[in-house]
Amino acid sequence: MKFYDTLAKYQIKKGFRNSEEYLFYNQNRHLFFNIEQYRFLQNPTNEFDIIRANIIIRSILNKKDLEEAITFAYGSSKMNTEEAQAYIYEKMTNHPYILENKTKIFVPIFPKAINLLYYRDFGKLLKAPYSKLFTDYSTSCIDIFETYNFSLYSSLFTKFVTIHQDDDVLVVYHYDFRTLYFINNQGRLDARIALFDKYLKKVVDNHIVQRTEGVVKAYLNDDREGVYQELIKNNLISSKLIYKIKHNEYKFHHKKESKLI
Question: Which pick of 172, 173, 256, 261 has the fewest CB atoms within 10 Å?
């Protein structure tokens, strides 16, 4: 654990509170403060929780835009059903979504069954009992991260770049935060590797997918030394910081062994 904390401590910061993610969160965080399910993200202490909070915010903004389009198309306008659907699809062209079984999920704070209404059965949303979703929907919210997990983090609801995925883990990179995130199949963060420390002479962040593949492979093989070597070889972490980390690890283990004698 100290290894990852040390990387984060020595990372060259790009200005967390000036990042697009934080500014977006700060501007829109009020949107989910009344939803009990997401209260744990109301006071995020790290950038990964900011990213998760922003996924929820983008989902709520999608919901609002969809409902506005549906109300107009099926209400005050004189469109027929085909025209109304075409109008709504056009309105949602540039909005983020998850694609599952040829269905676009625009509002992942809701289960898949409700998302079918927001994707094609628009007219039902204007009738009871579904019409209450427009105003009172907090009790219908789900654990968005566990339900949609990898497909959510790989979608345009985030700015992640996928590095690796298998049945158990998704590894993604965020360019603004210059960090690799290892996400388990419950949608939770297992580990993060912050790149580009202050001892590096030059930060080069191009070809990041290829340059981090070896790091990810070593991590998944539980090869700590391999992680060190791949980070140095690909100019992701300075040899000076790795040496400092290894030296501290040696002192720590030597001290533990001395106490046992």
Answer: 261
Distance (Å, rounded) from C-alpha 29 to C-alpha 53? Answer: 8
- For residue 260, the model assigns a pLDDT of 45
Q: Which residues of the chain have pLDDT under 50?
A: 258, 260-261
Look up residue 173 and give its amino acid: Y
Predicted TM-score (pTM) of the model is 0.92
Q: What are phi and psi of 199, to 5 degrees?
A: -85, -10
What count of other Cβ atoms lies within 10 Å of the Cβ of residue 153?
22
Give the pLDDT of residue 252.
54
Cα–Cα separations (whole angstroms), residue 2 to 7, 191, 208:
9, 11, 24
